[in-house]
Task: structure prediction
Amino acid sequence: MVSAAESRKNAPLWVRLLLPKDAPMYQRNEAIAGWLMVFPALLVLTIFLVVPFLMAFVMCFTNQRLVSPNPTEWVGMRNFERLLTVRVFTLEPDRDESGAIVWDDDGGIAYPRLRTFTRKNPDYPHLNGLREFVSW
Result:
């Protein structure tokens, strides 16, 4: 019969780390069986929770899009700067030739479309790519 010390000496490293030095043989077998039952659950958790979390952490520092023909570039903290930056842009209402405010069909004041300022307008390069936060 093999003693606990001899079986521990011949056991794999992970078994030796899990069991105390004086553990009997049946405890070693129970530990191995337990880890074999836990392994599929740990594998699924790793695949569906840990890996996506790490990928999201790395990708938040790039300009990667889900569907885009453009290559991915490392942008560093620029995404967070855009997220946390608040800019106020005041639109003046449309005016006619005499300088009076133009009213729309619903009786409200007519304003120019915001995207004419934020979409590659050479007169407003600092607004390029911004989006509306609130729309009335």
